[in-house]
Amino acid sequence: MTWPPLPPGIEPAELAWHDGVPESKRYGDVYFSRDNGLEETRHVFLKHNQLPERFSRVPEGGSFVIAENGFGTGLNFLAAWQAWQSRAPANNATLHFVSVERFPLTREDLARALALWPELKVLADELLSHYPPLVRGAHRLVLAGGRVRLTLFFGDINDAWQSLDFHADAWFLDGFAPARNPDMWLETTINQVRAHSKPGTTLATFTSVGRIRRALIDAGFRMEKTSGYGRKREMLKGILEAEEPAQPEDPGTIAIIGAGIAGCALARNLAERGYPVKLIDTGGPGTGASGNAQGALYVKLGVEFNDQTELALSSLTFAQRFYANWRGKHWHPTGLLQLAHSPQEEDRQKRFLQRNDYPRDILWPVNREQASSISGVPTESGGLWFPGSGWLEPANLCRELADHPLISTEYHVKVKRLLPCNGKWHISADDGKTIAADRAVISSGHLSPGLIPVKGHFRLKAIRGQVSHLPAPAVINPNAVICGNRYLNPALGDIAVTGATFDLHDNNPLPTTESHDENIHELGSMLPSLFSPRSDKPSGIDLDGRVAFRCTTHDYQPVAGPVFDGESANLDDLYLFTGLGSKGLTYAPLLAEYLADQVTGQPACLPANLVRRLETRRLYQTDVVVS
C-alpha cells in the first residue's frame, strides 16, 4: 500500500505512455484525444464557449475568467492562452484561468507531454519555467507579462471550489470520463460550478452522459447536445440564463500611500492590469524600511503545516517566480542556508523534517560539511538549504517597479489624513495639498496606524532594526545567504550587509555603536570562522549601517484587505497593506497580487483559509489602555 506523502507534499500523477500519448495509470484513461488533442480542445472548449469572439470584446482593464475541473497536461490552458494572444483586444485586459488537479504531473512529465505540440512551444516553455513545486494548495502563475494569470489548485476538486473566490465567464468541464472518475462529476461538484458562475456564463464538456446533462439543467444551465470531436459523436454545451450581466465599471484611479516594496509591488501590479495609480510617499520609492542595500528572501517555515506556514510557503514560492524577472539585475538567486545555529534550532529542524515532506526544489537538509561547502564559509552546524532563494537590492527594485506609464508619483508628500467625500477618498498632506482618488490603499509601514480613519485601535507596532555594513575584506565572502540569529549576504561591491537588530522599545532613527556591536557579536557566535584571518574583527564604532522601522501586527502575520470600520463591516474602497515585519521582501509580491485581485474584483489568488489570516478585523481593538 502506498501512503500519501506528509504535508505539504502531494502525490504526482503516474503515467503510462502509449504511442507517445500519456495515460493515467490510476484512471486508465488518456489525457487527450489520440486523434488530435489540440484540435479536440479547440472544437469542444474554445468553439462551443465562443471564446475567440468573446475575447475581442473584453474592455480596457477588464478580465475574462475561464474555470476548468482538471488541469492534466495543461493543453486546454495553452490552447486558451494561444487564442487569447491572437484575439484579445490590444489593451491591458487580463485572462484568468482557474484550474484544479488532484494528481499533478511532474515538471518532467509535463514537458514530455507538451512537446507533442510544437506550435505551443513558446507558451509551454513559459508555463514550465513557472510551474510550481508539487505541494498542496493554490498557486498563482503570472504569465505573458501579466496578461495571463493561472490559478492552479493542487488538491481535491471540492476543496478547491469551496476555498477559491471567483466567478467564471466560461467553464471547461474536462477531467477523465465520468465512468472512470466519478468523484469529479458528483452533484456537489456541479453545484459548485453553478455557485462560481454568473449570468451569461457558458460551459462545454466532451461528455454527453445523461445524468451530467440533467444535473447541469437542475443547477440552472440551459443545456443542449451538439456534435463531438473525432470518435465522440456528441458533446454538451450550455449557458446560465438569468438577468442581464452587470456592465464593467470604470476602473477609476487608485491611490497608494507608501512606496516601499509592498506599495511599489501593488502599484506595478495594478498598472499592468490597466488601472491608473497614484503612488504617494514621504520620501521616494524604497526610502523607508525597503531602503536597505541588500535584503534576503527568507521565511522560517513552521514545524506544523498550518495556515501560517502555508501562507509563508506560498509567499516564498511566488516571490521566487516574481523576482526572476530581475535576475542578474536586482535579484541574485544564490540560494539560502538556514543554519541549525543552536541546540534549540537543531531540535526544531529535526522535528520539522520528521513531520513534513517538502520537494527538493523548495528545500533539503544539509550536514555541517555540506553547509560549509555550499555556503563557502566554515560553519559549526548543518541546516536547511533553500536552492531557489537568494538576496535582492530592494531600493533599486522599488524604483524600477514604480516606473510605469500608468503610475503617477507624488513624492516628498507627508500625508496627514484621509476622508471620504462624494464617492472619493481625499488625501490631505501637511502642506495643504489634497489628492483625490476613487480608491485608496494605506501601505505606510509603521506610519499606517495614524492614517486609518477609524475610531479605536489597530494592533500594529513599530520595531527598530539596524543593519551593519561589513567591509568585504573583513569577512570570508559567502557564496549564498546565511541565516540564523543574524543573516549575512554575499558582498555587494565593497560591503556585505548583516543584521538586523530587533529593538521593541527603541525609537532612535540613527545607527548606534551598541547595535553594531550586537550585530557583530551575534554574527560571530553564529559563524566563528567568518572573519578573515588577515583582518581584525570589525569594531562597531567604525561601521556604517542603517536603521529602519518594520511594521508588524500583534500576531506577527501581515494584513492585506479592506479596512474594518470598527463596527460590523468594511469601509468602501479603502484598503490596508502592511504588517509584513522582517519578511516584507517575501510576503509583498503575493500579497500585492492578492490585494490587486480584490481591488479589481478579479479571481483571488489565495484560498479562504489564508484570506482569513490577512483580515484587518483581527487587528481592531475598541478599548486601549495607554501605559
Structure description:
The protein has 16 helices and 33 strands. The protein is of the alpha/beta class and 627 residues long. The chain has three domains: 15-240, 3-Layer(aba) Sandwich (Rossmann fold); 254-288 and 395-459 and 554-621, FAD/NAD(P)-binding domain; 336-347 and 364-387 and 462-552, D-Amino Acid Oxidase, Chain A, domain 2. The chain has an eight-stranded mixed beta sheet, sandwiched between helices. The chain has an eight-stranded mixed beta sheet with strand order 17-18-16-27-28-29-26-30, sandwiched between helices. The chain has a six-stranded mixed beta sheet with strand order 20-13-12-24-32-31, with helices on one face. α7 links the parallel β8 and β9 (197-205).
Which structural traits does this protein have?
single chain, 627 residues, alpha/beta, Rossmann fold, FAD/NAD(P)-binding domain, D-Amino Acid Oxidase, Chain A, domain 2, 3 domains, 8-stranded mixed beta sheet, 16 helices, 27% strand
SSE topology sketch:
Layout: E1 15-18, E2 21-24, E3 29-30, H1 37-47, H2 51-55, E4 63-68, H3 75-87, E5 94-101, H4 107-114, H5 121-130, E6 137-143, E7 148-154, H6 157-163, E8 168-173, H7 187-195, E9 197-205, H8 210-218, E10 221-227, E11 234-240, E12 254-257, H9 261-272, E13 277-281, E14 295-296, H10 307-323, E15 331-332, E16 336-339, H11 343-355, E17 364-366, H12 368-375, E18 383-386, E19 391-392, H13 394-401, E20 407-411, E21 415-421, E22 424-429, E23 434-437, E24 439-442, E25 457-458, E26 460-471, E27 481-483, E28 487-488, E29 495-499, H14 513-526, E30 544-553, E31 559-564, E32 570-578, H15 584-600, H16 608-614, E33 620-621
Parallel strand pairs: 4-5, 4-8, 5-7, 8-9, 12-13, 12-24, 13-20, 16-27, 24-32
Antiparallel strand pairs: 1-2, 2-3, 6-7, 9-11, 10-11, 14-19, 15-19, 16-18, 17-18, 21-22, 22-23, 25-33, 26-29, 26-30, 27-28, 28-29, 31-32
